[in-house]
Amino acid sequence: MHYTPVSVLPALLLSGTLSSCLPSPPKVREIVEIPGVRIENVASRSNGELLLSTMGEAKLYSVNPYKSPPKPEVIAQIEGVNSLFGITEIGDDVFALATGNDTGQQFQNNSMKLSLLKFKHGQLSVDTVFEESKYGPVNGIVALPHYKHIILGADSVRGEILRIDTTTGKVRVAIQDKEFTPIVDGLYGLGVNGIKIYKDYLYFTNTDRQTFGRMKIDKLGNKVGDVEIIYRLEKGSLSIPDDFIMDKNGNAYVGFWQDRLIKIIPDGKAIVLSEGLLAGPTSVILSRDAKSVFVVTAGQNNDNVSGGQVVQGVHNLSHANHDLPDPELTPLGEEQAQALTTKFPELANNVELIISSPLQRTIQTALLAFPLKFKAGMQVLAWSEVQEASDLICDTGSQLPDIQARFHGLPVDFSLIEPDWYLKMTGLMPSILKQLTGPTVRSALLP
Fold first, then answer.
1. Which residues are paired to 226 by β-bridges?
2. End residue of a domain, out of 264, 284, 313
3. 320 lies in a domain?
4. Whether the Cβ atoms of residue 213 and residue 230 lie closer than 8 Å to each other
5. Residue 321 within any structural domain of the chain
6. Bridge partner list, 360
7. Domain limits for position 58
8. Beta 293-297 vs 281-286: how paired, if at all?
């Protein structure tokens, strides 16, 4: 194929320096703030939307963090309780939601209620599993990997792990251990708080004891090993751990009251990823593609914040970025892309064709750099011949349906992309690929 001669260099820049996946300092940004609302927990739907449980009015919010601007909406309110606690997926777009009553100072014993949220054909139905229980309420909850209809729940007041069958409504004490209990006369009176399952272990935080640890369990959630404390805050610290999420490598991203997000690696080393922006972090979730971490907060202990926040940690949460597939631009990258035509004003008028690698960050660069061109009807032409030659995971693109969905409704032409475009040529070094790419592009573009 051939095109009318164009300014080629600006197009080819979109596969290079501006969109590099080289390491950079961690970045976080607030994407939503809901005035007067205390967000307690968060779950991620298959479509990328976040479900936010709240305390005080028992309202469930939904927000799409990828929309601009994101708009949180109330999609349900649970009757008979004043607070929503843990939420976890137990089936395809089916979520268990733990609820109960909170006095503002402590959980009300025996007020646990469990609901099922079912999304189907764009509609939400809310079913009640049970209305009352002599247990709970529970704080964090998690589904058993082999029996998704069974969940474990953290009874923070009694310091126990409950096993709850969401099909029968039966509740039993599954695990008791000193490391799950609160401290007598403790500041908060809360023991085990957040819980997650990774491989054969139940990971947990304990609020009063200021610990993060794990215990080996069987497929039914029974204890088969002793507690191992992985991380403990220094004596005298006023910070406390709340809920968290595990990544595929066994790292934990933990929200620490009052204002920190901390990454705890398997050997117990703690890395502060954010401090100061978060107004009472309560829970953490990874995006479905594991490229972002979302932190929700109670909107407290910060005079500059009016309510619960949803804060996004973008893909460079650590300096080991090369193992993240097809990452998006960082906030700094977005700023640089938006400033491109200001820094190089000759580009604003001389570009007749914009060609981009099909990588997410290069398409984002194009869309942010030339907004006036797109308003005038121009499109970004995605072309695999100008993709990064490197075989690093971060330079490997997404499957065509995924990248099309990511930029649906935006001026991007994917007609030249083959389904297997993202598969690198096995056996060829990146330097050889670079030598081949230049002549290929020139011969295709120029008559």
1. none
2. 313
3. no
4. yes
5. no
6. none
7. 28-313
8. antiparallel
Sign of the Cα torsion 437, 438, 441, 447 reads: negative
Distances (CA, A) of 143 to 52, 94, 199, 205, 357: 18, 11, 13, 17, 40
- On whether the CB atoms of residues 298 and 256 are closer than 8 A, the answer is no
**Which residue is associated with the tokens 């205390």?**
38
Cα separation values, 130 from 60, 159, 235, 349, 357, Å: 18, 22, 41, 65, 52
Alpha-carbon span 99 to 353, nearest angstrom:
55
Burial of 264 (0-12, 13-18, 19+ CB in 10 A): buried
Confidence (pTM): 0.72
State whether residue 373 is helix, strand or coil: helix
Taking the C-alpha atoms of residue 48 and residue 248, their distance in angstroms, rounded to an integer, is 18
Alpha-carbon span 306 to 60, nearest angstrom: 19
Q: 209: which residues sit within 8 A by CB, 6+ positions away? A: 179, 182, 183, 191, 232
Please state, in angstroms and rounded to a whole number, the distance separating the CA atoms of residues 139 and 107.
9
Would residue 434 count as lying in a domain?
yes
Residues 356 and 225 in one domain: no
Per-residue pLDDT of the chain (447 residues; tens, 9 = 90+): 333 333 344 444 455 444 455 554 456 789 999 999 999 999 999 999 999 999 999 999 999 998 888 999 999 999 999 999 999 999 999 999 999 998 776 787 778 899 999 999 999 999 999 877 788 789 999 999 999 999 999 999 999 999 999 999 999 999 999 999 999 888 789 999 999 999 999 999 999 999 999 999 999 999 999 999 999 999 889 999 999 999 988 999 999 999 999 999 999 999 998 999 999 999 999 988 777 899 999 999 888 899 999 999 865 545 445 556 777 777 678 888 899 888 888 877 788 889 999 998 999 999 999 999 999 999 999 998 888 877 777 788 888 988 898 899 999 999 999 888 888 754 433 444 455 455 555 565 555
Q: How many helices and strands in the chain, by DSSP H and E?
A: 8, 27
